[in-house]
Structure formats: C-alpha cells, structure tokens
Write a structure and sequence with these properties.
10 helices; Rossmann fold; about 30% strand; globular; ten-stranded mixed beta sheet
C-alpha cells in the first residue's frame, strides 16, 4: 500500500518471517503438495515480501500477480526479487525467477484494490494471499472478498493481520491509553471505507466461515527484543504520530511515552488459511 515506504517494509520483513505461524504454513504446504503448478494473487503486495516467504510452501511452478496501488513499491519489489532469486529472466512486463528448483513467473499490477479486486479475481487465481494488509481494509471489503474468493473456488492465505494485542517492555501506565488512541487512528478510512483495524483478523475468520469455507487460524505475533531496536523505535515513532493526529491524548503524555527506553515489544497478529469445503 502507498502509505508505507520501502524502508519500513524492509525493516519489518525479518520480524514478519519469524512471526509466521508454522502450523498454518504447514497446512498451506500440505494443501498444494500434489500440484505441479499454482496461480497466486497477492493483494497489497508491496515489495514482494509475501512472495519471498510463501513461495517455498508452494509447487515447483508458480504464477504470481503482485497487486498494489503504489507503483514505487512494486518497482522496488522487482529489484528485491531479482536480488533474492538465484537467477532471473525478464520478458517484457513479466519477470521469471529461478529459486532452487522452483520457477516463479511474476506479473506486477498497479491497481486500486478498493475498486479492482473483483477484476483481479476474475482472472481465476487458485490461491489469494496477502500479508499485513487487511487491518487497512474495511469490514465491507472483507465481506466482499470472502464471498468473491469463495465463488472463485480459490484458497485464501492471509498472514500477519494485526489483531489489537500489544505489550511493551518495560510497561508504563500510559501504554493502554496510547494503544487505544492508536486503534482509533487505525480505524480511519485508508481508502476502503472505515478500516477494520484490530477487528480485521476476526472478521476474516467469520466471513470465510459464513461463506462455507474450512478455516484454520493461528497466532503470529511479533516478539521483539533488543536486537530489533530499530523496528521498536519505528513502531514507537509511528504510534506517536498516529496518536498526535487523532487527538485526545495530552501532548506531554505522548512525549513522556516516546522517551521511555524500550527493550521489547509484543505485537499480536493472526494468520488465516481458508479452503472451500
């Protein structure tokens, strides 16, 4: 999504990779183990981190469409994927990556997902995936998506959907006040209508079940420690900016909260895998 810089996505990629729920990932791998190829639609693809993390679970031949509204992120993603691959071939707008024994064909699509997701689903992907995306979207979008993915008879795999749980080390009395204000900011319109924010994970689970899918879910929290100090610092900075924008918290409280030296953070996420029953 265009609200995020390539630098922020780079900073969080290793934490995201560590946090992914292994049981859910194993279920994804088992689902497609007997296939020789698979077509994948990645929503809010950013710089391609989800492809890099998910492709090892999938068959030998993969066809990915990376969709995002920000062409700058997709261009940065193309460069990162070329660097990640063992070798690559470029054929016009299509990038072919060789990684181990896998051949991954990638198309990059600049798209306003609030309006163009259905058109992307009309291309009949067999797996629809996204990472750290759905808290930005609305409950209406999630309802639409669950229905459309089910009608397309595709599987669905969403990782690292923020679920509202936070714990800072050391704890301070203002932590809960800051988190509550951050959630109010997070639920503002991000281009899809009022954002689901911390309710997104539960909404995904409910809507895919309502549409008759078998749904697995599991926790995938960030457990950040001293070695993640740059990411912790950016989280604190981002919270402070959001809380200042939303109002309702005294500026002195925000400044004092920012100035606490943090040695760790727990940020809750949920991974969801849904398949047609």
């Amino acid at each position: 999504m265009s609200d995020f810089s390539p630098e922020w996505l780079d900073l969080r990629e290793s934490a995201d990779a560590r946090a992914r729920n292994h049981d859910i990932a194993s279920a994804v791998a088992a689902r497609f183990a007997l296939r020789s190829e698979l077509s994948v639609l990645d929503l809010g693809a950013g710089t391609g981190a989800n492809l890099r993390a998910t492709s090892p679970l999938l068959p030998q031949r993969q066809f990915w469409t990376l969709a995002d509204r920000d062409p700058t992120l997709l261009e940065a993603g193309k460069a990162k994927l070329i660097q990640w691959a063992d070798r690559h071939e470029a054929d016009g707008e299509v990038l072919v990556l060789i990684k181990g024994n896998q051949r991954i064909t990638v198309r990059f699509r600049v798209a306003d997902l609030a309006r163009e997701t259905q058109a992307l689903l009309d291309e009949k992907p067999q797996l629809v995936t996204a990472s750290a995306f759905f808290d930005l979207t609305s409950e209406d979008y999630i309802r639409m998506l669950a229905k459309a993915v089910t009608e397309a008879k595709a599987a669905f795999y969403a990782t690292l959907t923020y679920n509202g749980l936070q714990k800072w080390t050391p704890h301070r009395p203002a932590d809960n006040q800051i988190t509550a204000a951050f959630h109010r900011h997070q639920m503002r319109d991000k281009g899809f209508g009022p954002a689901a924010g911390p309710l997104a994970a539960s909404e995904l689970i409910d809507q895919f079940r309502i549409n008759g899918n078998v749904v697995l879910d599991g926790e995938s929290p960030w457990r950040l420690e001293r070695g993640d100090r740059m990411l912790i610092h950016e989280l604190i900075r981002g919270h402070a900016v959001a809380v200042s924008e939303i109002g309702g918290v005294d500026e002195k409280v925000i400044v004092n909260w920012v100035n606490v030296s943090r040695t760790g953070a727990f940020v809750g996420h949920t991974d969801v895998f849904a398949v047609p029953s």
